[in-house]
Amino acid sequence: MALLRTLRPTLPILIGASLMLSLSMGLRQSLGIFLQPLTHDVAISVSDFTLAIAVQNLAWGFLQPFAGAFTTRYGFRPVMIAGALLYIAGLVLMATAHGLFSIMIGAGVLIGTSLACTAAAIAMSVTTRAVPVAVRSTVLGMVSAVGSLGALMAAPLGQILSEGYGWRIGVGGFAILSLLLLPAAWFAGRVDRIPLPKPADDEIGNTSASVAVKAAFTNPSFIVMTCAYFVCGMQLVFLTTHLPSYLAICGMNPMLSAEALGVIGGFNVLGSLFFGWAGQRWNKLALLGGMYVTRSIALAWYFILPPTPETTLLFAAIMGFLWLGVSPLVAGAVAEMFGLKWQAMIQGLAFMSHQIGSFLGAYGGGVLYDTMGSYNLAWRIGVAVGLTAGMIQIAFALIRPSAPPLVMAK
């Protein structure tokens, strides 16, 4: 009750940010269910489709710092509204596509640009500004948890529409759902009315964007976190893009992939709440490293065994618990290191590494499959890189256990 009283003035902002995150991430994470019917109908290869998803991830990653900087200059609301409109346009173009170019522009460029304006980095930055420091990590976990519900709804809906009426109607259903991004972005944009806390004279809140970037890339904790963030994108986008195809190759019921993505979304809720709570109490960077190691172990276990409906859903539950819990930890760590003014931009810089990993997870997985006829090498690479990055992150967090001061780079 005390938490509710604390949050009551900002509830419209938090609800808007949660809905925006839920839709932008849930729809995007469910695009893999259209891979098989779309590639057959439009006569493109698996690697062609995954190249479009890879372009989406690169556009998202490399435009994220600019979107973050624009929120400082123009405010969150116009950036998020523009992103919502681009998302709708991208899905409409994808639903009406008859060749690779339209898929590349719709699913790749337009949705990727939209995600830079509507997804985790922006939603977490909105939440960070809207709540007191004492409950920040917990509320970040709550918003991330609600944001996880999108996949729980979108994946089964898309699969039902695709099986009953064709993949175009499935994508069209996603386009209709994406209209809700507009009111969500509008309400989340109320955060622009909340003034930033006045920084001390030596904090980066008093500096320009270029000085803030220099401060980030001379901070060892930020550099290690950013490099390890690469594996997060590689593992997760490999799964959302290729798990439906892998299950189809193994002769599983097509609905199983939608159920697995839905289970991921459901357990995202529990994981986000837990890691938001945990980040309020323990070292955020060490928790991140532990997540990467645990994910890698789960990946190895699942792909070594022949898939069954039971193991697939259990695997989805484990990965879902470890999925979006990264967001409150990264957002909280960046806010602790650098303050609020440039948080969205600096978080976007870290996210570039995540999206380079996403590019390799989506496109690299497709290329390896087309070349070798299986996903064996792809998942093994994901496990090896994940274990390495996670252990380095944990070791560094233990060596540097406290958050660095919020000061300008000298």
What does this structure look like?
The structure is a single chain. The chain is mainly alpha-helical and 410 residues long. The protein has one domain (10-191, 207-399): Growth Hormone, Chain: A. Helix content is 80%, strand content 0%. The chain has helices at residues 2-7, 11-29, 35-42, 46-74, 76-95, 100-118, 120-130, 136-147, 149-165, 167-178, 181-188, 209-217, 220-249, 254-279, 284-304, 309-321, 326-338, 343-372, 376-399. Helix 2 (11-29) crosses helix 8 (136-147) and helix 13 packs parallel to helix 18 (343-372). The N and C termini lie far apart (44 Å). The model is unreliable at 402-410 (pLDDT under 50).
CATH architecture: Up-down Bundle
Radius of gyration: 20 Å
Low-confidence stretches: 402-410
| CATH homologous superfamily label | MFS general substrate transporter like domains
CATH topology: Growth Hormone, Chain: A
Describe the global form: globular
How far apart the termini lie comes to 44 Å
Count every beta strand, where a strand is a DSSP E run of 2 or more residues.
0
Strand/helix succession: HHHHHHHHHHHHHHHHHHH
Report the CATH C-level class.
Mainly Alpha
Main structural class:
mainly alpha
The number of helical segments is 19
Integer count of domains = 1
Largest sheet: none
How much of the sequence lies in strands comes to under 5%
The mean pLDDT is 81
Helix percent reads over 70%
